[in-house]
Amino acid sequence: MFRNLTPVVKNLLLINIAMFVVASYFMPQLERMFALYYVQSPRFMPTQFLTYMFMHANFWHLFSNMFGLFIFGPLLEQFLGPKKLLTLWMVCGVGSGLLYSGYNAYRIGQLDNQIEAFYANPSPERFNDFVKDNRHLFKSGVYDFIDDYTKNPESKTMIQRAKENYMGIRDIQINIPMVGASGALFGILIAFAMFFPNTELLLLFPPMPVKAKYLVLFYGLYTVYNIINNSPTDNVAHFAHLSGLIIGVGLVYYWKKNRNNFY
C-alpha cells in the first residue's frame, strides 16, 4: 500500500504528521504562532496564511485530512505531475485561508454593527438578543446580569457592564484560530472528481461503491448546508472547505484551458 505513495504526497504526509507531533508534545507554542488568526488579532502574522495548513486541532482532524490525501493524492500526482499536485495543494490551502479571512471580516463587521447599535441605543432587549446569538461564548452568570439590567435599564453601571460584555465577545471572536489542511484537501477532492468523475470509490459507512463526482457533490452540498445553517457551536471552518473546492475548480479549468502547458 505505502509503496504506491508518490513523492509529494509522501512528503506532505510526513511534514504534517511531524508538525502535529512536535506541536502536541514538544513545542505547543507553535500552534499559537502558526494558526491563522483574524487580521485584527494581536496574534496575527501574514505568514499564518501558509503555516496554518500544517497545524491540526487533534489526532482525528489530522487523520481525516491525511487519509484523504493518502487516498486521492497519489493518482492525481501521477496524472498531473509532482509540480502541479503541489501547486494545487498550496494554492487551495493558502487561497482558502485568504477567502476565509474575508468571510471572517464580514462576520466581525456584522458584530461591530451590533456593538455600534447598542452603544447608540443601549437596552436590555438588545443585549438579550446579542446573548442569544452568542450564548455558546457566555458563562451562565450572564443571565443573572440580564435580569438585573432589565430591572435597571437606565443604570450607567449596567450599561457599562453590557458594553464590556460586547467587547469581550468581540475579543474572543477575533482570537479564534483556524488550523488544518482541509481547504487544500478539498481542492484535491474536486480535482480528482473533475479528472476521474466516474471512478468508483468504496465507502466504509455505508459499505457501498459511489462515483467520485457524486461523493464530492455530496461534500460540497453538505458544506453549503453547514454554512447556511451556521450553528454557533460548530467549530468547523466550513467556508474554508468551500473555498478549497471553488479554488480547485478554477485551477483545474485553467489547466484544462491551457492544455499546451498541461501535459
Report on this model:
The structure is a single chain. The protein is mostly helical and 263 residues long. The chain has two domains: 2-105 and 181-262, Rhomboid-like fold, CATH 1.20.1540; 107-174, no CATH class. It is 70% helix and 2% strand. It has twelve helices and two strands. It has a two-stranded antiparallel sheet with strand order 1-2. Helix 5 packs across helix 11 (238-257) and helix 10 (212-229) packs across helix 11. The protein is elongated, with a radius of gyration of 22 Å. The model has no long low-confidence stretch (mean pLDDT 90).
* Mean pLDDT rating: 90
Q: What count of structural domains?
A: 2
H/E series: HHHHHHHHHEEHHH
Helix content: over 70%
Distance between the terminal alpha carbons, to the nearest Å? 27 Å
Q: Based on the structure given, which CATH architecture of the largest domain is correct?
A: Up-down Bundle
Low-confidence stretches: none
Count of helical segments? 12
CATH topology of the largest domain: Rhomboid-like fold
- Compute the CA-based radius of gyration: 22 Å
Say which CATH homologous superfamily of the largest domain is assigned. Rhomboid-like
Number of β-strand runs: 2
Q: Quaternary status of these chains?
A: single chain
Short characterization:
With 263 residues, this protein is mainly alpha-helical. It is 70% helix and 2% strand.
